Amino acid sequence: MTLCLIPARGGSKRIPGKNIRDFAGKPMIVWSIEAAEQADCFTRIIVSTDDPAIADIARAHGAEVPFARPAALSDDHATTVDVIKHALTWLADTSTAPDTLCCLYATAPFVRADDIRAGQALLQHAAYAIPVTTFAFPIQRAVRLVDGHLAMFDPARYAIRSQDLDEAYHDAGQFYWGRSAAWLADVPVFGADTAPIILPRWRVQDIDTPEDWARAELMFQALAARGDL
User: Fold this and answer.
1) Tens digit of pLDDT for each residue in 120-144?
2) Domain span holding position 47
3) What is the distance between the alpha carbons of residues 229 and 227, in angstroms, rounded to a whole number?
């Protein structure tokens, strides 16, 4: 059994109602549900939520909401892995636990079905598979503000040309494939047994703040205009 789990709690503070707020004509979470359906590789697509409004929209668009997420896993301190382990335990106790689980974020309107399928294939040789993309600027040359002045995080790299620095990648914030045994054993997601799915930067945007949301809408419009969605 292969599970897609979409975590979508209510109570977002920075963008109220963001999981079901309209994005390009659909509630945000619907983009993730439809991508999971289009991937055509899941036995079940389950939304983990504490919010009845999110549950109603998820069911209306084909996802299951077989349980209410406990309050203890619905605050700002609950981690994604906590939510995944809860779902796996619930399934083991009530029906059939999956062999693999893809945690697909509810705010991932740029996620593509073919990337999801690519991640599943990589699990043949890895515990996890996640999409990543490059930083737009060398992280070794990052600076911070100290008493109103600039200071490099790594002054030893000051004189090194940017093209001579190692390229760095970051989590694309779309989905995480993993074997259930790895999730339950707390095997680190960012580790030696994780396979990368490399995405271009123009298809990656976290949506955590109103500024992120506005940028994502502009990106979506641009991609739609050139037929690249």
Assistant:
1) 999 999 999 999 999 999 999 999 9
2) 2-133+169-225
3) 6
Which string of DSSP letters, residue by residue, matches 127-142? SEEEEEEE-SS-GGG-
The C-alpha atoms of residue 229 and residue 222 are separated, in whole angstroms, by 10
Confirm if 174 and 110 have CB atoms less than 8 A apart.
Answer: yes
> What single letter denotes the amino acid at residue 73?
L
Q: Per the structure block, which two tokens stand in for 39? A: 């991937």
pTM greater than 0.90: yes
Contacts 24+ apart (CB under 8 A), 90-93: 90/66, 91/3
Nearest to 179 by CA among 111, 120, 132, 131: 120
Q: Which amino acid is at 171?
A: D
**Per-position b or e across 41-78, b if 16+ CB within 10 A of its CB:** bbebbbbbbbbeebbebbeebebebebebeeebbeeeb
- Spatial distance between the Cα atoms of 178 and 170, rounded to a whole number of angstroms: 18
The CATH number of the domain holding residue 82 is 3.90.550.10
Residue 152 · residue 142 · CB < 8 Å: yes
Asked, for residue 103, whether it belongs to a domain, the answer is yes
Q: pLDDT, tens digit, for every residue of 155-204? A: 999 999 999 999 999 999 999 999 999 999 999 999 999 999 999 999 99
